[in-house]
Amino acid sequence: MRTPIRYNRRRVLGAAVGTMLAARLGMTGSARARTTTSTKEILMSSSAAQQTTPEGPGSASGAPNLPAGFTDTFTSRYIDTGELRLHAVIGGEGPPLLLVHGWPENWYAWRLLMPALAKDFEVIAVDQRGIGLSDKPLAGYDTGTLANDLVALMDALGHNRFALVGHDTGYFISYALAADHPGRVDRVVLAEVPGPPGVIPSPPLFIPEPANNRLWHIPFNRVNNELTEKLVSGREDIFFGYEFAIQGGEKKLPDDVQQYYFDLYSDPDVLRGSFGLYRAWDTTVTQNEQRKSQPLTMPVLAIGGEQSWGEAAGEGMKPAADDVQTVVIPGVGHWVAEQAPDEMLAALTAFLAPYRDGSAVVQDSGWLAAASGPQLG
Predict the structure, then answer these.
(1) β-strand partners of 304
(2) Which of 126, 305, 307, 336 is surrounded by the fewest CB atoms within 10 Å?
């Protein structure tokens, strides 16, 4: 049993990237401002609080442009964890597989992978605390608390042990969950950041321009003042459009997909909630400094986009885990589940096969050979 982590010390600066990684960033795509907004409003928070059944574009029944037959397999559910109510889209048969989205997205980020995964797993794609149709309290956005939310979710669903996939901020949360609750996680997939803040060295305040262009949103989002919401509100297409472009490499997300996220984050409570993880950054850094003293022992697969973090997604976990393998998906940037769903599915299917088949032991590196397509490291 691990020694409980005490969260009582703060750090001035914690970041998710070391100085040595900044040179990678020059290869990424240019920013482009979005200039149109949808007239459709998504009232994710105030309306959701009154509903017993998830509805609207944030739900499986109301989300646009889902794969054919999606709602034959998947349904939206509200799950009362005792602490708060979380929204999750659930379907499929087999051992449980929890999918944790990143910023600025929600469960919808996984939609292209979910039907295939549901053939082998019970897929649970959750909205993080503060985002989508999940509750949006004012506090509780450090990764320790966010991980506890997900453990409580899986408890409520009757799952003691599960596999876990996290992307972007979901990488941070999934690492915290695996570290704080190692007996619950069979194996974990961590995609598209260069390691958890506090595990790898922090960069200097002034970093080269290509890196700054991709990382400036972290200190901006961390500003613990309504200033950030005021600057973004009504300009979601500009702010988030820049992020989708600068992080995406050469293969951009379709306009309608970006518009879905612009509308989602136009809800004031979603916007505030989405900044919560960043505003709790100091607390998370302190937590991770303690977590890394007890490296993960379960298998870890890191996935990076070639035009984004690439190998760094795995290198950043090596100080905090004993068994890390890395897959680099060629020709894509940060949004790997949406830019390269077939390649990501191949990597997930191969890595998760021992868990699917009831074995917790990977035979040598055989799963790597099965992951055809991506570059392997």
Answers:
(1) 328
(2) 307
